[in-house]
């Protein structure tokens, strides 16, 4: 399995199944973040942040031609007692506080949504049941905005489940008060023709803990942009992800962890499996450690398992450090083909080939699935992995 770790800036390694490269975070965007869509030029595919994305499959989300049509998606929130669920307008002070749109689609979503949903957990509340948000596409184009807010020292688990068919652009904001603990599981289990582009913004309070688990299976094109910043020292962010990219699918995950406060931590680990002709996965991992962020401890990892010929991975880890006073920082990217020796080992012990293949892939994803901590969600995702593998036999 080819691996790139701590590559000097400007290095490039290319192959038939993967590309790994370095560049500074500052040069990756064609325009600075803005809430105004007019501040972003229409992308043409040559821009650094768009060069991997097939623009013709965005269905007009990138150039302003995608007009909201009717309901588009239905959103249902199931929350334990004590949690407040509101529908608010754009003038609500919590809208956009976690982060600013970083590209034209995110800005288009911000300027196009009609009402935002805000889910608030009061300070010091410790939820024993998860908050579940079901986003179901019913066709057409939709724009959305979701805010999850935790008061100081509150603890909660949120599951956001995307299903059905839609062309959806959305922003999701996570606001964590001091000492709060939030775990978010975002599942993209769309129908085959769906398009989903979203920016996830997390503002992590002083000594707060944020854990994100992003799971992507379905859709024709899914492009997600998780971003983390810190509102004070001592914050801890863990960003986990798993994706299974099938024939013809484009799945893209672009992450930014902006260490802008001292003594904060971040750990990123994304794993993907690919199979089928023209299956394309993209992972971009940007970590910026600003001059003020002394004492930072950061690491990011991306691993990909290519199950068949005809699939492609682009994996680009980036690390920019502006201070030498850090606890640690590093990154790694690895892509490899399915290991036939593992299959041989299992088959030599009497395990049928199909079962052996399933066990290898399950083992590859196991440590990330276990991060979810919700048995019903974990079992569903493992069943989905099995179904994907069966479809390729």
What does this structure look like?
By secondary structure, the chain is mainly β. It has 2 domains: 2-338, no CATH class; 339-393, no CATH class. Helix content is 13%, strand content 45%. The protein has 4 helices and 19 strands. A hairpin with a 3-residue loop joins strand 2 (12-14) and strand 3 (18-21). Helix 3 packs antiparallel against helix 4. The protein starts with a strand and ends with a helix. Residues 1-23 have low confidence and may be disordered.
Strand content: 35-45%
Distance linking N and C termini? 23 Å
Helix content: 10-25%
Helix count equals: 4
Biggest sheet descriptor: 19 strands, mixed
Q: Specify Rg, calculated over alpha carbons.
A: 20 Å
Q: What is the ordering of alpha helices and beta strands?
A: EEEEEHEEEEEEEEEEEEEEHHH
Number-wise, the strands total 19
Count of discrete domains: 2
Structural class: mainly beta
Poorly predicted runs are 1-23
What shape does the CA trace take? Answer: globular
Q: Residue-averaged pLDDT, rounded?
A: 89
Features:
SUF_FeS_clus_asmbl_SufD; single chain; SUF_FeS_clus_asmbl_SufBD_core; mainly beta; 393 residues; 19-stranded mixed sheet
Q: Which helices and strands appear, and what pairs or packs with what?
A:
Blueprint (H helix, E strand, L loop, with lengths): L1 E4 L6 E3 L3 E4 L51 E6 L5 E5 L15 H9 L3 E6 L9 E20 L4 E22 L4 E8 L6 E10 L4 E8 L4 E10 L5 E10 L4 E10 L5 E10 L5 E10 L7 E10 L5 E10 L6 E10 L2 H8 L5 H17 L5 H18 L1
Parallel strand pairs: 3-18, 6-7, 7-8, 8-9, 8-10, 9-11, 10-12, 11-13, 12-14, 13-15, 14-16, 15-17, 16-18, 17-19
Antiparallel strand pairs: 1-19, 2-3, 4-7, 5-6
Helix pairs in contact: 2-3, 3-4
Pfam family, one: SUFBD_core
Family: Belongs to the iron-sulfur cluster assembly SufBD family.
Protein name: Fe-S cluster assembly protein SufD
């Amino acid at each position: 399995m080819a691996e790139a770790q701590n590559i000097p800036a400007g290095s490039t390694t290319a192959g038939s199944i993967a590309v790994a490269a370095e560049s500074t975070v500052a040069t990756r965007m064609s325009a600075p973040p803005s809430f105004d869509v007019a501040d972003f030029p229409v992308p043409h595919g040559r821009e650094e942040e768009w060069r991997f994305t097939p623009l013709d499959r965005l269905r007009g989300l990138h150039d302003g031609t995608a007009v909201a049509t009717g309901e588009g998606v239905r959103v249902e929130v199931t929350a334990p007692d004590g949690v407040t669920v509101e529908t608010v307008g754009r003038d609500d002070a919590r809208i956009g506080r976690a982060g600013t749109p970083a590209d034209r689609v995110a800005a288009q979503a911000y300027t196009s949504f009609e009402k935002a949903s805000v889910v608030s957990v009061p300070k010091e509340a410790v939820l024993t049941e998860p908050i579940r948000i079901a986003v179901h596409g019913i066709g057409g184009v939709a724009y959305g905005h979701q805010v999850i807010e935790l008061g100081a020292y509150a603890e909660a688990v949120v599951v956001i489940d995307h299903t059905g068919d839609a062309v959806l652009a959305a922003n999701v904001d996570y606001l964590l008060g001091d000492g709060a603990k939030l775990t978010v599981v975002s599942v993209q289990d769309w129908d085959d023709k769906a398009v989903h582009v979203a920016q996830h913004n997390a503002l992590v309070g002083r000594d707060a803990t944020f854990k994100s688990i992003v799971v992507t299976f379905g859709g024709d094109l899914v492009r997600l942009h998780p971003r983390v910043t810190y509102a004070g020292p001592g914050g801890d962010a863990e960003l986990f992800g798993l994706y299974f990219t099938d024939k013809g699918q484009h799945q893209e995950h672009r992450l930014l962890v902006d260490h802008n406060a001292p003594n904060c931590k971040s750990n990123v680990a994304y794993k993907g499996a690919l199979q089928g002709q023209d299956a394309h996965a993209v992972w971009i991992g940007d970590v910026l450690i600003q001059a003020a962020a002394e004492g930072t401890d950061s690491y990011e990892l991306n691993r990909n398992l290519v199950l068949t010929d005809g699939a492609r991975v682009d994996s680009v880890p980036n690390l920019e450090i502006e201070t030498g006073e850090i606890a640690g920082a590093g990154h790694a990217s690895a892509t490899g083909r399915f290991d036939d020796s593992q299959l041989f080992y299992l088959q030599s012990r009497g395990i049928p080939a199909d079962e052996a293949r399933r066990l290898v892939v399950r083992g590859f994803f196991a440590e990330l699935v276990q991060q979810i901590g919700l048995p019903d969600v974990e079992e569903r995702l493992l069943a989905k992995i099995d179904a994907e593998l069966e479809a390729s036999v």
